[in-house]
Amino acid sequence: MRLLRAAGLGLLIALGVGACVPTAVTRSPQELAAAQHAEQLARQGQFDQAVQAYLTLAQQTGDQDHYRVLAAEVYREEGALEQAAPLLDQVRRARLQGEDAARYDLLRAELALAHHDAHTALQLTTQPAPVPPALELRLFELRAQAMEASGDLWGAARTRVQMDPQLEGLDHTQNRKQILDLLGRLGAEPLKRRGAAMKGGDRMLPWVNEALTQLGVPVAQPQPDLNQPVGTMLPGANANVREGYRMPARVALLLPLGGNFTGASGAIREGFFAAYADAARNNAPRANVRVYDSGGTADGALKAYQQAAGDGAQLIVGPLTRAEVAAVFGQAKLPVPLLALNHPDDKSLPAGGATEFGLLPETEGAQAADHMVERGLHGAYVIVSDDDFAQRAAGAFKAELEARGGHVAGMATLPPPGKVNYANTIGGLNMPKSAMPLPAPTSSAAAAVPAPAPAGSTAAAAAPLAQPGADTGIFISMRPEQARLLLPQMQIAHIGLPVFGTSHIYAGVDDAAANRDLDGVEFCDAPWLFDAQPGLPSHDAIAAQLPAARGTSARLFAFGMDAWNLVPYLDWLRDHPGSYLPGASGQLAADQFGRVRRVLVWARFQDGLARPLSGSLQLDDVPSAAPPVDQTGGIPAPAGSTEPAPTGH
After folding, report:
1. Is there a contact between 160 and 172 (Cβ–Cβ < 8 Å)?
2. Residue 28, pLDDT score
3. 310-327 burial string, b = 16+ CB within 10 Å, else e?
4. How far is residue 396 CA from its own chain's centroid?
5. How far is 296 from 356, CA to CA, in rounded Å?
6. Fewer CB within 10 A of the terminal residue: the chain, N end or C end?
7. What's the confidence (pLDDT) of residue 461?
8. DSSP secondary structure string for all residues of 532-601
9. DSSP calls for 75-120
């Protein structure tokens, strides 16, 4: 009830007596002064005195109903709603107009809910009569409560979604939690049916998808609209003014600087300051930046955030691990806006004033499915490693492919690292074989592996498609050394289907001899690794100077670059759907929940070298948000997981 009571007193004070009095009533100077005094008493929290002042006005003037309604509102704000009931009983509803009538009905509805009379409350809050804008939030809150009490969970959720854009701070956070709770109580299957029947522009669809995700159901990823890049030069005398650019004066960067997080944080920090230095060539305003050690723990992140806020930071970037982000989001209020570099481990929505920029494996899987469908491939076999990134990418791939009318013919997980014979995995999928012999594998190690065994092994068995190979591909998510074993063994088994993968498959450096077995494989990745995004500093030039910009850690470096590049455009991206930032880690757009989504580029191995398709930036206008983790030197996964990376990857 906190939201309702606050809105009630705010209305009482903001409107004043003159604004809420019917225009036909003429007030004497003495009456206006007395009413203003009663209003001041209410503002000061002297509720009993304010009630008596209004009741005195009711006795001394000709507008008894108006002042009794105001007295009832004061009782409500005091938390003594039951004391308002006798006053309302004396009010003649038929004589009320406009805001007085609306307030009377809302008070009656709130009393009905307090007495467990949801039917009456619903009648009072769904009347066709217009409600003044200042009372809308209160009306929606009571209507949502009445619908929930009546068992209409869907209607209650829709009403709260209608409220959502008008709320701020803790009220906003609480309302979003209630929306997802209401939808979750409907159950996964009813939600899936509703979602399937919705059109793309339905404002409930993102909420349904979010609720299903929190229920553990993989859902199709929303496609961001990439209509207009940020930073367009504005006409005028100052040629350095860019549309949407608003740089805070002081920025704090929160990262865990020690322990297992040293490598990941170091790459992100170096990328952040490389982009900071590059911004100087545009003569754009830059913030003063201070780095704080978040320690890699929830307590450490909270202390770092609070210290940065106390030091005057106007925007805080970080922290990095999921546990850290969840802890900062868990505060009752965020005094300073936040750009979190991860998603909380409880999958909750961003807190009010917060934006999330994370690297989710689910979005790479979804983009791979969309890419295959764009290629005319609607069937897929899925082969992934047993790590968390690959498993989550596979789940998202399957959900997205099925949402776009495709189907997964079979799924298999590779044996644990150390096993080199994938024959049972390949044979168990019953994939269609090529009519023509395939080129012999180039890897001598792979050539020594026996041919795949027939179906009936550790893989998830599946029947071949009706038209073998006609519109079918293979999706993989695994490390380069695993792919170098798998692909030659599939050639031996005469499996010639096209292969598509996540960025896992590319180690971030050219190695033609080692990667020749991967020729033809297409994968999504960060554009900066291929210098495919115009306007950014050269990857090769920076990598020649900074080790953190080389190999797989280059993706973390690009992530850090984008963390800085997002700083002046966060508000613009959030307030202008369809706008996007051409970033190092992808094209970056913000969704309605305050999450930054990435769209990656596609590359292909040819003669053992990974090159972007068509030699330049190629986009499918689909979501993706997960660079693979740098596993060299024991660097932990910064955005998909807080766990240190396994050794040997």
Report:
1. no
2. 87
3. eeebbbbbbbbbbbbbbb
4. 15
5. 18
6. N
7. 41
8. -STTSPPHHHHHHH-GGGSTTHHHHHHHHHHHHHHGGGHHHHHHSTTEEEE-SSSEEEE-TTSEEEEE-E
9. HHHHT-HHHHHHHHHTS-GGG--HHHHHHHHHHHHHHHHHTT-HHH
Do residues 455 and 427 make contact, with C-beta atoms less than 8 angstroms apart? yes
Q: Report the Cα–Cα distance between both ends of the chain, in Å, rounded.
A: 52
Q: What does the alpha-carbon distance between residue 610 and residue 350 come to, in Å, rounded to a whole number?
A: 36
Q: Quote the CA–CA distance of 222 and 621 in Å, as a whole number.
A: 11
| Summary count for the chain: helices (H), strands (E) | 24, 16
Q: What does the pLDDT read at residue 6? A: 42
User: Which amino acid belongs to residue 95?
Assistant: R
Helix (H, G, I), strand (E, B) or coil at 502: coil
Asked whether 293 and 307 are in contact (CB, 8 A), the reply is: no
Tell me if 424 sits within 8 A of 458, measured CB to CB: yes
Q: Are 454 and 426 in contact (CB under 8 A)?
A: no
Would you report the helix, strand and coil content of the chain in percent, each value rounded to 5?
A: 50, 10, 40
Tell me the C-alpha distance between 564 and 558, whole Å: 10
- pTM here is 0.79
Q: DSSP class of residue 516?
A: G
Query: What is the token pair recorded at 61?
Result: 């003037």
Distance CA(32)–CA(53), nearest Å, equals 12
Residue 15: predicted pLDDT:
39
Strands laid side by side in the 609-612 sheet: 407-413, 379-384, 472-477, 499-501, 522-525, 601-606, 609-612
Single out the residue of 278, 297, 298 nearest to residue 286, CA to CA: 278
Q: What is the DSSP letter of 352?
A: T
Residue 8 corresponds to which tokens in the numbers above?
């009630």
Q: Name the stretches of the chain with pLDDT < 50.
A: 1-23, 237, 437, 440, 443-467, 615-649
Nearest residue to 200 via CA among 177, 175, 221, 226 = 221
Q: What distance lies between CA 568 and its chain's CA centroid? A: 19
Q: What CA–CA distance (Å, rounded) separates 294 from 305?
A: 8
- What is the Cα–Cα distance from 595 to 221, expressed in whole angstroms? 13
Whether cis (ω within 30° of 0) applies to the bond prior to 29 is no
- The CA distance from 526 to 551, in Å, is 12
* 187 C-beta neighbours (distance < 10 Å), count: 11
Q: 384 near 422, Cβ under 8 Å?
A: no
